[in-house]
Amino acid sequence: QVQLVESGGGSVQAGGSLRLSCVASGYTYSNPCMGWFRQAPGKEREGVASIDSTGKQTYADSVKGRFTISKDNAKNTLYLQMNSLKPEDTAMYYCAADGVRLWPSLKSADFGYWGQGTQVTVSS
Q1: Fewer C-beta neighbours within 10 Å, C or N terminus of the chain?
Q2: pLDDT tier at 1 (50, 70, 90 boundaries)?
Q3: Which of 97, 98, 56, 62 lies closest to 82 in space, CA to CA?
């Protein structure tokens, strides 16, 4: 059974940084496609960043240049480095994973496994 466990969330002031981590276990795939999504209160879940099985990345326009997604396959861990945080980045952040795929995706429907989420709060 695949499990995804996020950590690293917290409260920061605008302009600050956080690094989220997601440890995956129970995987039968050696290099899955993975992503980060977020959901703010009263809003739909949105894709933030994704990395495919080749390492190709894609980002939402709202985070380009500020967030960086990376993956350590040896540690089965996905990261999201978030810099220059803004109050509008406040949300619950979720790690997602799927099988081997050769293109990154920001669509929730493209991912079959989800973590429980970690809260990020950015104050002005």
Answers
A1: N
A2: confident
A3: 62
